[in-house]
Structures are given as C-alpha cells and as structure tokens.
Amino acid sequence: MYFMAVLGNITFLLVIRIDPSRHLPTFYFLSMLAAVDLMFTTSTMPKLLSTFWFHSHEISFEGCVAQMFFIHGLYTVESGVLLTMAFNLYLVVCKPLHYSTMLTGPTVAKLRLAAAVCGMAIITPLMYMVSSLSYCSPRVMHHSYCKHMSVVKLARGDTRPNSIYRITAATIMVGLDSILISVSYVLILREVIGLSSREARLKTYSTCGSHIGVILLFYTLGLFSFHTQRWGERILAHLHILIGDLYLLVPPMLNPLIYGMRTKPVLEQVLNLFCQKGIQPRS
User: Which residues of the chain are under the pLDDT cut of 50?
Assistant: First the structure.
C-alpha cells in the first residue's frame, strides 16, 4: 500500500506539473493534497518497514519527536486541505458565475498557506510540551511508530497539560474542519437536487459520494486511533496498531484514485504519460 500511495501521488503531481491546462484552483488544491499525503506516509513508513524487515526497533528521542510532529501536523494540514477542497467544490456547483472572481491566484495561495501554517502551528506547542517531560527507563513504546499518547505514557510526573492541549487542539481544528466540510456538501447536494438534467445530477452525486467516502474514512480512522489510544484499554493492542497503520496508508493510497483518476482529463493525461513512455521509436 505504501508503494501504491507513493506511485499514485507522485504520478498525480507530475501530471499537474507538466500540463499547463491543469494550472487551475481545483488542481492546485489536489496537488497540495497529493504532496501532503506523500510526506504523511514517508514520514513514518521507511522506519516502519525497517522495523519489520530488518528488526531495527530503536529510534532516537529527537527522531521520535520529529516523527510525531510530521504525523500529527500533516494530519491536521490534510484536514485543512480537505476543507479548502470542499469550499472549492461548493463554489463550482453553487456559485459558478462568481468562481473565477472569488478564487483568484492570490486567494488560492492564501488558502493553501493558511491550511499549512495552521496545521503545523497548532502542533508545535504540543511537541515542546512532550520534549519538556522527564521519561522513565527503559523507554519501550507499544506501537509501530511514535504517537503522542504512546510517548506521553512513558513520561514521569503530571502529563495532564499534554492531554488537555491535545484533546482541545484536535477538537477545535479537526472538529471545526469536519463540520464545515459537512455543511459544504449539504449545500452542494441541496443545489444538485434542483438541477434539471438527470445526467448532471447523477454525475455530481457520484463525485460527491466518492469524495465523502474518502473523507469519512480519513476522519474515522484518525479519530478511532486517537480515542482508542486515550481511552481504549480494552481494545486489543494488535488491533489498535493495525488501525493506526491503516490510517497512515489507506487515505493516501485512495486519494489519487478518487480525486485524480475519477477526473477524466487527469486520467487521460496519466494514460498518455505511460503510453508515451511505453512506446519506443524505431531506429
């Protein structure tokens, strides 16, 4: 799944990069999603694979904190990107006459920057708080990669400020993003119901349905991993680790397929790209 996620997202980025006709707001948001997914999986999977393949079970504390920063930070950034994409789709469907004037180049750049900065900024204090704790020895973590609660459980002293900040940050950022995404799709579906063309309605339902499915998977796996790490003592450790690994792999693997390959111009460009590489000129 990791190699499929890397291949899919790199291909998607290349298609948008080499085709000038894809330099539009929708594809700018999609390219940012692909870049975030690429970093999200790569921040953990090489170390995870080395653990399983080469039994390299150790990681430095600094490396562990860096891994936590990218996992939680990029998850929050991706949540913000999904929100901007839902807003973009809302404008396409509900405000088509105002789309080009509302989503100008500077506006798109500001939205992308806001998603990135907000996601990383809200995680930075948490990493400082984790680094300030004192830890017991030996430092054995019962997870396949560094997660905040897994690391905090190894600490001595009062860890409540870490837990309170983590829960508050997740509730505000991810909770607010998911609510606004839901509102966007409700407004889109309400607008689609009024379309006179049955074909247009079915096409929009298909697009929205696949998007909603991937978004639900993204939030469900993330929130399940989040809450079981905090309150799921009765859940089997292997099940919790499996869900934690899947939430790093499944959404980044599916996003290029759902957002990219279901877009006809992108699919045609991908096919052209591979066909051109597969055809060798005769000498």
Answer: 278-283
Per-residue pLDDT tens over the stretch 129-186: 888 888 776 677 767 778 877 788 878 877 888 888 888 888 888 888 889 999 999 9
Distance in angstroms (rounded) separating the CA atoms of residues 170 and 174? 5
Question: Which residues, in sequence order, are CB contacts of 244 under 8 Å at separation 6+?
Answer: 143, 144, 145, 147, 225, 229
Q: Three-class SS of residue 156?
A: strand
Q: Are 148 and 69 in contact (CB under 8 A)?
A: no
Most distant CA pair in the chain, distance:
73
For 9, the token pair is: 């997202």
The total of other beta-carbon atoms located within 10 Å of residue 205's CB is: 13
Quickly tell me which residue has 């298909």 as its tokens.
206
CB 89 within 8 A of CB 205: no
Q: What are the structure tokens assigned to 45, written together? A: 């999977």
pTM: 0.85
